[in-house]
Amino acid sequence: MAGSIFNRRWCLAVEQQFAPRLIAWQKDHGRHGLPWQVSDPYRVWLSEIMLQQTQVSTVLGYYPRFLQRFPDLATLAAAPVDDVLAYWSGLGYYTRARNLHKAAQKVVSEFGAVFPAEREAIETLPGIGRSTAAAIAAFCFGRRETILDGNVKRVLARCFGVEGYPGDKPVETQLWQLAERLLPADNLDMVPYTQGLMDLGATVCTRSKPVCTLCPMVDGCIAARDGRTAELPVKKPKKAVPERETVMLLALRDGEVLLERRPPSGIWGGLLSLPQFDSTLAIVDWLAANGEGDLAPAWPPLVHVFTHFKLTITPQCVELVRLSGDVCADNGWQWWPLATALDAGVPAPVRRLLQQALDGAVPAE
User: Fold this and answer.
1) Domain containing 122: what range?
2) Claim to verify: residue 13 and residue 152 sit in the same structural domain
3) How much of the chain exceeds pLDDT 70, in percent?
4) pTM
5) Do 250 and 353 lie in a common domain?
6) Is residue 28 part of a domain?
7) First vs last Cα of the chain: how many Å apart?
8) Which residues are catalytic?
9) What's the CA gap between 76 and 113, in Å, rounded?
10) Residue 6's pLDDT is what?
11) Mean pLDDT within 290-304
């Protein structure tokens, strides 16, 4: 009982000091000069979506290129979704790009092309959850809203000794309530405070090997005090990663490749990809029924890891001599010049295969 009372008092004292310490630390040691550290909600929103489950170093390579093609919200809303997917290609999680496009169109149609300032309104846009909406509202409009992404959950769980897996609803609710109590009183402090939360989790209170000596909260952090930084936050219970297999048809003809449009939802939704079959034998049967060509030995399998499963791709190359005219129309397939296909919206493993085909390099075992 005495220990419990001590921890509550400890936490209350740390809560009072949290925002002032974090703001002071951010001004001196936080990240400054990132291209999305601006007040333009379109640019902040774009960065927030790109940074979901993606490293800053990776986003830095895509962000300026995307903005060059889609410099403002109206341009993005008016663009074909295929163009958006093409400029997103390689970043993964393509639902983000489709939702980005839908959200831009909604801002134009329902908000008069003016990005909404209130978190509740921002949250109605496709692909934007509470934390992302709060970040935009805080950064661009000085709203007193709290964020709670993965990095922030880790900082709070360690600092205040929050037990349990943060993905469980009761634990997440506890973290939201804690995060709201920690907000600075002055709206003018919201930008350095919000940026400070992001910076602390990304650069100091990292998942592995946190640099506690550089943390402004080190003397008030329960995990640091009790030697539990490796235990908190509690890790997600492990599950076996499902494995799937597919055979991709790499059908070539005079420098062109046969591509199909993926369904709007699901894996690689809306992207162009290589036609998929259950087996090489199925491709042999398809070829016998629909055309004529030289079936090359299958290329070595290519493994692509998604968030929830592992996909093993066996590329099957076929040099087509003839293809029945109705096949493409019936399946929605299209012939693309190899070089052009590389710049289209295709998944990363498919781009790798297309590059190898363009180079004429058959991968070795």
Assistant:
1) 2-225
2) yes
3) 96
4) 0.80
5) yes
6) yes
7) 64
8) 48
9) 11
10) 53
11) 91
